TrEMBL record:
Lineage summary: Bacteria, Bacillati, Bacillota, Bacilli, Bacillales
Organism of derivation: Paenibacillus silagei
CDD domains: ABC_Iron-Siderophores_B12_Hemin
Span of the signal peptide: none
Annotated SUPFAM superfamilies: P-loop containing nucleoside triphosphate hydrolases
Name the UniProt record assigns to this protein: Iron complex transport system ATP-binding protein
Pfam families assigned to the protein according to its UniProt record, in alphabetical order: ABC_tran
Coiled-coil positions: none
Amino acid sequence: MNLNVERLSVSFGEAKIVQEVSLRVQNKQFVGLIGPNGCGKSTLLKSIYKVIKPRHGEVFLSELNVIKASPKLVARKLGVVGQFNELSFDFTVREMVAMGRTPHKGMLENDSQQDADIVSAALRKVNLEGHTGRSYNSLSGGEKQRVILARVLAQQPEFMILDEPTNHLDIKYQLQILNIVRKLDIGILAALHDLTLAAEYCDYLYVMKEGRVAASGVPEDILTKELIREVFDVECETYRNPVTGALGIAYLETK
Ligand code: ADP
Ligand code: MG
């Protein structure tokens, strides 16, 4: 599935938070959204996944008009890993992941053996098969994040949106989550705060500043010290990872 966002704008009262943002994710690309805190990344993503109604603009997942379509129809195609995943009611890990099957089921339809197998496979993929009976609220932030990813895997979406999915995670699990997501072989739009990981995993980047797209392109072209100074207000040098050859960013003193 391709994502097409056309001139999307979001306001809260008088405040224009997202302004005329257009972006595309095509051919199963892994596309990153980067930009400083408060520049509007989460607001943009929420308006794409239907939590916030945009003031103007259009969102299409291939032929599906996301803004007009029912939430259930969108949930069959689109998986979301949001930023905050607190629950007021407690569920077990397995129950949480099983909820990923909901968009595919009728109102009173019970889980089938096939659903149970999909849920087990998703738990295995994030190394949580030993935690299935634990209460979700008792888990650490990183474990919760992996449960949320497993739930989205169980949903078997054709496109995925992630909002800083590796916050609170050890580096091992940051890499694990990004590797799992990359291997899904579906289109991905992810807000990422770590620029070196963005360089490593993304085929293409959109840089946001003050609600607008300030730049876009392949990581090699985008992640220059000049752009990082301009957008993030920090000094850095870029370098090549001596083993992988990947682009790296070394931060110098902040101004
Ligand atoms: P980012 O994800 O890039 O850090 P956000 O999209 O969360 O940025 O926030 C962008 C701006 O919108 C911030 O100034 C934030 O305070 C404001 N904002 C976000 N949600 C709301 C809301 N519901 N009402 C008013 N302002 C909001
Ligand atoms: Mg955010």
